[in-house]
Specification:
This protein is an alpha+beta fold. The chain has five helices and eight strands; from the N terminus they run ααβββαβαβαβββ.
Amino acid sequence: MDLLLEADPSEKMIEKYLKDGDLFVLRYKDDVACIAVVTKLDNDTVELKNIVTKEEFRGKGYSKKMIKYLSDNYKQRYKKMLVGTTENNIPFYVKQGFDKYEKTIKNFFIDNYDKEIIDGDLHCIDMYYCSKDLKK
């Protein structure tokens, strides 16, 4: 839970999507390096709800490896994977194939979190959704 809270500071939100989602763990030796949670939205679409790499493993490609694994795994049954993210993280997800803009949810972080969400130097307000075609 502590690691998931680094990417999503609401335990209540995490518990909600963990209940319906699949949890994936990428290990390096005996240590957890990266974790992700994916939920089913409909018969064609899944959503990457949370992905976080442990601090000492960041910058080494573990999130990229996790996204590749998830894409390969889910393309057997689904056409598309969505991710909702902050403005700062859009370039990372575009590089991972989430290259189709879907929608913006205005005031998402203000409406759904008790405290301000800061990502780097950005005060997060809106959630941006991008998708990846899993059948490419």
